[in-house]
Structures are given as C-alpha cells and as structure tokens.
Fold each of these.
Amino acid sequence: MNVMIPVRPDGSVEPRFGKAPMVAVAQVDDNGHVTQWQTFEVEWDRLHDEGTEGSHHARIVRFLREHEVVACVATHAGMGMQRTLAAMKVPLLPATLPDARESVEQAMVAACAAVKDEAE
C-alpha cells in the first residue's frame, strides 16, 4: 500500500501538508514497514494561491489517486483538506517523529496494530 507524507530535502517531515513543496510516497508492507520510498517535487507551496481552494484540493486529490495513496501521514492539515481526505476515505495519520520515513513506519505500525486489535 502507498502512503504519502510531506517531506523536506533533508528527509525530515515538512509541517505543511497542502503547501508542501515536496512529498514522498512510501510503499508499505502489511506490517507497516517501508519497502520503497520515492520523493516528488509537487510545488504545492507555489501552486496553493494559483486558483481556488477547491482547485488546489483537486490537484492534491489527483496526485493521491495517480499514486494510489491509501493513507497520509502529516503533522497538520487544514480543515478543508481533512474533509477532502475523509471524503476519499484516506486516513490522515499523525507524523510524530522528525524523520519522515521513521514517522511513516511508526504511524503505519500503530495503525496496523489497531486494525488487528479490532479484528480480534
């Protein structure tokens, strides 16, 4: 499964979701561990104010769909983006560590454990 996180060039978590200049898409295995990592320069910081909020959210939605993203990890997303992700049924998980890869793994391992606990 693919998980997206806003990132900085040094590999740390970018605190801006909808205004992130760069994001990573991590391929994660069934246990929540990152198996592949790819970064993309999306320039959402520059593109954010070029058009309406709806058109910007549509841009992000297209990216998520093109990359088959099933969850996002972030420190913050605005209410409009939260509603958009909820409508897509794409969970927004908390980024709690400074390192983006480690934060994805921690969020996904916790989410996988929660799903397994619910199933039991």
Amino acid sequence: MALAWRKLRKAFYLETSLRILHLCPPSSCAPWISVPRLSLHTKPSMPPCDFSPERYQSLPYSRALEIHKQHLSPVETAYFQKPLLLHQGHMEWLFDSEGNRYLDFFSGIVTVSVGHCHPKVTAVAQKQMDHLWHTSSVFFHPPMHEYAEKLAELLPEPLKVIFLVNSGSEANDLAMVMARTYSKHTDIISFRGGYHGCSPYTLGLTNVGIYKMELPNGMGCQSVSSETFLLFNYRLLGLQDN
C-alpha cells in the first residue's frame, strides 16, 4: 500500500506540474513567482491604509468573554487563546476593539467574501433595504428574477434552472437530494475533519467532533480520510500496483 501511495503522489505532482506549465508558461509566470528574499530577522510590515475606524464604544473585552461562556453554544469555538474582538471592517482590513489593524486572509473562513463594507455592495444592499425587506417566494420581486436571468446566462443547458437557498447547509441538502435522485444511490463519501453544515441532513457529511451527537443523522454518509479517498480513485483508474 505504501508503494501504491508513493506512485499516486508522484502521478498527482506530475499532473499538477504539467497543468501549471500549460496554463502559465515560464515567461509569464516569472513576475508572479518572483518575491523578495526574506530572512529570519526580516521585520514584517503592513501595507498602507488610508481608512480610520470609528472609536470602539461597546462591550469591554472581559464582558464579551463572559457572555460568550455563559450564553453562546460551545459549538461557537473561537480557536484562539485570546480571540479577537472585532469592531469594524473596511475592504481587506479588519480592526479590533483596541484599534489594531489586520489584513484579512480568512475571507469569511467557510464563505466567499468580497471584502468588508465594500462601497458598491453596501450601496446596493442599502437600496434594497429602502425598498423592500423579506416577504415570501409566493410573490414576485424584480431583483430576484433579474439575478436568476443573469446567473442562468453563465450556465450551460440543461442547468439553467435556479433554486435560491438561504444558507450553505441548505445548499448542501439540495445537492445531496439531487445527487441521490440522479444516481439512484444513497451513499455519499465525505472527508474526515470536513464541515458541510449543521442541519440534520448535512450532519452526516460533517465530520468535526463538536458537531457530532449520538443521534441518527445523515443516512448513507460514509466518512473517509483524504488518503483513503485518493487511493480508492487511484485504483478505480486502473493505476493500482500489481
């Protein structure tokens, strides 16, 4: 098995390298891979920023920690010994309660972000809030249909049917139903350590300890390690070691 795994990694690295060279010739990649040399003694510096955040005037840090421990679910894990108490965001920048500035590389962690308080996004959201809030899908409203039409233009036939959902969990629920309906099979493989939602349906896909409970959920979901999954596909391709 070790020999097969080494061959799989070698084939994967070779395939990836060839794709990178094909998409980006050496001459065009040179500026991208050219970076200044840094040593262990190089002091990092932040890029300039012309935005000044408002003065923080809300909960003290100690009070926020106390409320978090007393009233928020343990699932809301901070992952840091001293979690940041964020105060304000602007484009790629975040500012904490003490006025420290951070360059945001998390991008919403498990979601896609276009930056914080982007002026264009803020203006469109404000315009919508001034006209109409949530009603129901049983009524029509032009922005929803305009969005569906623009999104459908990007999709090939027959994938030009739009189903709008309100969360990633609901989107994964729908994906599971569609996959099972199309394939006529119920089993779904998910990676250990992966988060895919906290709804009763997607909890079977989610393989993070703090989200798991001793209750039936996620029928037909099988968790595997990424190495097992790659080796399984390696053998399906007929590349297993003889």
Amino acid sequence: MQVRLLTAAAVLGCASLLGGGLASAQSLPGPDNRPAPGNEVPALTPRQAGYRPQVNYQLQCSGCHRVDGEGSRKNDVPRMKDFVGHFLEVEGGREFLVRVPGVSLSGFTDAQLAALMNWMLTSDIAGDSTPTDFQPYSATEVAALRAKPLEQIDATRDVLLQRMRDQQIAVRDGLEDRP
C-alpha cells in the first residue's frame, strides 16, 4: 500500500512540474523581450544584401542541386554539373532555365537572377556544356521570362531533352532512367 502511495505521489509531482513548466512557457515574444547582443539590427534578405552570384547559388540552388551541381537522383533533382549549358543548344532551352519555378519564383531581383544564371553557365557547374557563343542573360530578358513561370515542367523538360537527343547531345542529367 505504501509503495502505491509513493508511486502515485511521484507521478503527481512530475505532472505538476511538467504542467507548471508548460503553463509558464512563452511561445511569442513579449513586450519586454530584447534581441541578443549583436542582433539588434534585423538581418537583410539575400535580395537586399547584394551577395555575389556564387553566394546566391548557395542560398537558392544548392539545397536541391547540391553545391557542385550534381543533383540528387534519389530526390528526383536533375544534375546540372557538366550538363546544364546544353539547354542553350536547343529551341526553348534558354527560356526554360529561367522559367522553372525555383528560378522564376526566387526572391532575387532580375539583375541578381541574371548574374546568377550567367555565373552558373560559365562556372565549373556547367563545365564545358555551355556553348562558346553563349550570350549572357540581361535583367530585362530575365524579367520577361520569369513573368511566365512554367506550369508543365516535366513535359516541357522532356521535349527539350528529346531535342537534345535529336541533336546527338548526350543527356547526362542523372535522371536518364526515370519513368
């Protein structure tokens, strides 16, 4: 009998401690909350910060396409490494690169996005896949393209990949065997 009373008292004691802690927990900032030292000025968004295109790639693209552009077959994310520039060799490919939702709907300005695309297509990510006559994107071109985001991403991409195959361009996007 005494063991049961001690066990019940222990359970009630723990419950009151937990309940008391939950009742006093604060989930929203109160009027007296202050930022931690060094955080008095709100952080800038990437759009406001004016980062280099390489940093913007890290912030916007590398989460899915990975730092080196290798993509992830497991997550159905195409490889850009040594391949993405081939889109510039087929009709509709240049437009596609800006109109995909991850690009067209990003928070970057048109100029930042143009700089990011130009950096990516002339960096180690694109490797030798970018044509030698590549014309850099302008902010004006990006603005016009991103105003019309793609709705049929996979269907459009499949058409572009078939155009590559028709031109004897090897499709090495890491998703060659997807259904």
